[in-house]
Amino acid sequence: MTHRISENGQALHRATLSRIEAQGADNEPSADEQALIEERRALKEERANRLAHAGETKPVADRLVRTHHALPKDKPKAKKEAKESKDAKTSKAHKSRAEKHAAKAAALDAARKAGKKSAKS
Questions:
Q1: pLDDT tens for residues 11-64?
Q2: Res 121 pLDDT > 90
């Protein structure tokens, strides 16, 4: 809104100056100049009206009104048992971190106790 008022004011100023240079300051404004003056007045009234309504409170809903009610979900179908094939891989039980470290320590201890074997025997 401010931008439109500013552009209108600049156009009005140019029109006024061109009229003053051509005819003198004593002559009345031309029809184009009168239209710019009227448009500027209307823009300023509209801006004032918008500012007055901006301070007013707007209606707010007291609570959320549900327009859609969720439908109950269908009961899940019974799962079919998977067919066992010859290629089916069985999952191995994984060792925990502590078990892995204990196995490694036991292997190192066994290697230390075994000692070195001689090449001759």
A1: 888 888 888 888 777 778 778 888 888 898 998 999 999 888 888 887 777 777
A2: no
Task: In whole angstroms, give the CA distance from residue 83 to residue 103.
Answer: 37
Distance CA 74, CA 35 (A): 70
Rounded (5°) CA angle 17-18-19: 90
d(CA 60, CA 7): 37
Angle formed by the axes of helices 31-54 and 2-23, nearest 10° = 160
Task: Say how far apart CA 23 and CA 29 lie, in whole Å.
Answer: 10
11 Cβ contact partners less than 8 Å away, ≥ 6 residues apart: 36
Cα separation, 89 vs 62, in Å, equals: 60
Q: Rounded CA gap, 25 and 28, in Å?
A: 8
State both tokens at 40.
Answer: 């500027």
